[in-house]
Amino acid sequence: MKKLINDPANYVDEVVEGMCLMHPEIYTVDGDTSRVLRRTTAAESKVGVISGGGFGHLPLFAGYIGEGLLDACAIGDVFASSDMNPMLESVRIANTGKGVLCVVGNYGGDRMNFDMTSEMAELEDIVTTKVIVADDVASAGPEEASKRRGVGGLVYVFKIAGAATAAGQSLEEATATTQRASDNCRSIGVALSSCIVPQAGKATFEIADDEVELGMGIHGEPGVWRGKIKPVNDLVDEMIDYILKDMPLGASDRVSILVNGLGATPIEELYLVFRRAKELLEKQGITIALPMVGNYATSMEMAGASITIMKLDDELESLLGAPADCPFWRNLK
Question: What is the tens place of the pLDDT at every residue in 58-77?
Answer without folding.
Answer: 999 999 999 999 999 999 99
